[in-house]
C-alpha cells in the first residue's frame, strides 16, 4: 500500500488511547478493593468439615494425620510429607481413584484409593484396627505405608509408582 494511502495516527489519538488504557487499568485495580469492602461486611460461616470416627478432620490432612497416629502405634515408619507427596502423585487426593488402564488393571486387579493399592497388597499389608475397605482413606494410607515399609524401608523412600 502506498504511503499516502496509509492511515496516520495523530498525537491526539495516541494520547486518548493512553488515557483510556490508564483509566481502565485504574478501574480494574479499584474494583477488587471496592468488592472486598462490601464482602467484608457480610458474615457467612464456612462450611464445616466433618470428622472421622477418631475425631480427625474428614479431609486429606485429617486422613494423613490419623494414619500417622496408627502408624506410630504399630511402629510403621513414615512422615506427613512422604505420604502427602505420594498421594498427590498417585491419586491427586481422590480416595475414590481407580486405575483401569495399567498392567494391574489388565490383569483384573486395578489400583485403588489414595495410594493406588491393589487388592492383594491391601489384604496382605492391612493394618489391624483400620477398615477392610480399600477405598477407606485411612485404611488405604496405612496399608500402603506398611507395604512401603516392608519393601522400601518407608513411604518416604518412594518417589515413583511402587
TrEMBL record:
Protein name: Transglycosylase SLT domain-containing protein
Keyword terms, alphabetized: Signal
Domain Transglycosylase SLT intervals: 69-159
InterPro entries named among the record's database cross-references: Lysozyme-like_dom_sf, Transglycosylase_SLT_dom_1
Gene3D superfamilies cross-referenced by the UniProt entry: 1.10.530.10
Signal peptide (from-to): 1-41
Species the sequence originates in: Streptomyces achromogenes
